[in-house]
Amino acid sequence: MLYTLAGGGTLCGVAALVLLIVSTATDFWMQYRYSGASANQGLWRFCINHKCHAHTITVAFWDATRAFMLLSVLSCFAGVVLGLSAFANGTKSRRVRMGGIALLLSGFLALLALAIYTGVTVNFFGKRFLDWRFSWSYILGWVAIILSFVAGVFQLCAYQKNISEPPPPNIQES
Q1: Which residues pair with 31 in a beta bridge?
Q2: Which of 39, 109, 131, 143 is most buried, by CB atoms within 10 Å?
Q3: What would the DSSP string read from start to end of 24-88?
Q4: Which distant-in-sequence residues (6+ apart) come within 8 Å of 109 by Cβ?
Q5: Hey, is 22 helix, strand or coil?
Q6: What is the pLDDT of residues 13-64, one digit of tens each?
Q7: Strand partners, 38
Q8: What are the tens digits of pLDDT across the range 94-145?
């Protein structure tokens, strides 16, 4: 049972890691109209009519969102590596538990990042631009949060199953 839960947790963790990386790296967190032209922005740059530029001003909410997303990616990577190492070296319950904790931490950090971004976007950009919406990079971040939490719960359940199951009896051949 350990390998089934840990395997499911590791698979969800890999999916969450890919989605976190894509969400963090792409420029489609928000789409809006700027002077009649289509525009979009991500954490690192903004694009108007498919011409992209780095953010020219340093705003605390972008820095906080970037930092939490990068920490989330690192934590998710650690959780996946710990989950995979449990398979490579046999049953290592401490690695499974630490992998689950790292994956839950990753989900929490990404949740903080997206909550900050959502709050500022709705309160500031929502009033500044009339025609705006969250876009696919932002949505991938929310899906990654769900997968990260599910992966962490699976890993921790695998750990609980492992410590609660009695060891198999030794059957000696005659």
Answers
A1: 40, 133
A2: 109
A3: HH-S-SEEEEETTEEEEE-SSEEEETTEEEE--S--HHHHHHHHHHHHHHHHHHHHHHHHHHHHH
A4: 68, 69, 71, 72, 75
A5: helix
A6: 999 999 999 999 999 999 988 777 888 999 999 998 889 999 887 788 889 9
A7: 33
A8: 888 999 999 999 999 999 999 999 998 888 877 777 788 999 999 999 999 9
CA distance 104 to 121: 25
Mean pLDDT (the chain, rounded): 87
How many CB atoms lie under 10 A from the CB of residue 10?
Answer: 27
Q: Any idea which residue has 């790292």 for tokens?
A: 102
Both tokens assigned to 58: 């340093």
**Tokens at 26, concatenated:** 């792409």
Whose tokens are 């906080």? That residue is: 64
CA of residue 106 relative to chain centroid, distance: 6
Q: SS3 for 134?
A: strand
Spatial CA neighbour of 2 closest among 77, 99, 102: 99
The residue written with tokens 């499974």 in the block is 96
Distance CA(39)–CA(82), nearest Å, equals: 40
Write out the two tokens for 35. 């002077």
